[in-house]
Amino acid sequence: MLNIRRTTFIALAALLTGGVAAQASAASLKEIKDNGTIRIAVANEIPYGYMDMNGQAKGAGPDVAKHIMEQLGIKNIKWVTTNFGSLIPGLRANRFDMVAAEMAILPQRCKEVLFSEPNSSYGEGLLVAKGNPDGLHSYDAFAKNDKKIAIMAGADQLEMLQKLGVPGDRMVTISSNADAISTVSTGRAAGYAATSLTVAQLAAKSDKVEAAAEFEDPVVDGKPVRSWGGFTFSQDSGALRDAVNAELAKFKKTPEWQKILTGYGFSEHDAKASFDQSTKQLCTAE
């Protein structure tokens, strides 16, 4: 099963960490508590985890993380922004202690880092030019026509499009979501593949683009695509991961948790579906 958002390849991780296989030692939970400060990274992606115009951390990941840190007695959070493709290498290099980017929990990533239990779930979408001039309503369409589709560097969508049979020469790689509107509106690509939440956020920013209506959910390996996002940790941060899991489990039983998710555009179905898969199941999925 392919649970999709963004796939960070092992080769990319090795490149960004200078090709060093061993990872730097992470701060222990006791050290973090004693210091009263934890470093949490986001990839500046609305609505998952980002810094607003006032320098405040926002998004489904950061808002839930703030509650969890308060419950753990950690009073200060040092927020770190980086590109999505640098999140896993950054954890391995001890540039931060935790990631709150709602990163999709995938078997390949589980070999590189530790994940909390899911905090969210979400599906896919397609950003197209205003009026959808090419009549695009699925990712599969790009396997059958000569149009190009854009994806973000390090994105899950690369592996998904490959499995759907989209040739590599029809994929346009961009560095961040911020480039998607211009890429699509200028015709460099006919569409941009991202989660439905990201697509909706981008469409709201410009009258030159829109979310493809009647979008057909991708079916990969016989199953509809849905991702489950969680908090991410270095492999030697098991105690921190376990502490976060304990507080997350409590918080997810409250209306306040669901209010955070729906406030950022997740549907009630998305919130409910976050309980459908465990991290163990997602990490061992075929």
UniProtKB/TrEMBL annotation:
Keywords: Signal. One of its GO terms (biological process) is ectoine transmembrane transport. SMART domains: PBPb (SM00062). Residues 37-268 form the Solute-binding protein family 3/N-terminal domain. CDD domains: PBP2_Ehub_like. One of its GO terms (molecular function) is ectoine binding. It comes from the Bacteria. Pfam families: SBP_bac_3. The keyword Signal applies. Residues 1-26 form the signal peptide. InterPro entries: Ectoine_EhuB, Solute-binding_3/MltF_N. This is Ectoine/hydroxyectoine ABC transporter substrate-binding protein EhuB. It comes from Allopusillimonas soli. The gene is ehuB.
